[in-house]
């Protein structure tokens, strides 16, 4: 589990968000989904006691 959380934390990009990893069929929907992906990553890290940031 620790390795999975490390992988998730390492995926954070320079602007603080996480990338959409599913298949992109157009740029705008992927950009809109990025907020949800970021929120999910932050909630997961917080739930397992990982520092946010």
How helical, in percent, are the residues? 55-70%
Characterize the main sheet.
none
Unreliable stretches, pLDDT < 50, 5 or more residues?
none
Radius of gyration: 12 Å
Spatial shape: elongated
Written as H for each helix and E for each strand, in order along the chain, the element string is: HH
Average of the residue pLDDT scores = 91
Number of separate strands: 0
Strand content: under 5%
How far is the first residue's CA from the last residue's CA? 20 Å
**Count of alpha and pi helical runs:** 2
Structural class: mainly alpha
Write a short abstract of this structure:
The protein has 53 residues and is mainly alpha-helical.
What are its keywords?
53 residues, 0% strand
Overall description:
The chain has 53 residues and is mainly α. 57% of the residues lie in helices and 0% in strands. The chain has 2 helices and no strands. It has helices at 2-10, 27-47. The longest helix is centred in the C-terminal third of the chain and has 21 residues, at 27-47. It is elongated, with a radius of gyration of 12 Å. The mean pLDDT is 91.
SSE arrangement:
Elements: H1 2-10, H2 27-47
């Amino acid at each position: 589990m620790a390795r999975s959380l490390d992988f998730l934390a390492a995926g954070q990009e320079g602007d603080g968000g996480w990338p959409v990893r599913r298949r992109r069929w157009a740029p705008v929907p992927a950009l809109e989904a990025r907020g949800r992906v970021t929120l999910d990553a932050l909630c997961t890290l917080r739930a397992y006691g990982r520092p946010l940031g």
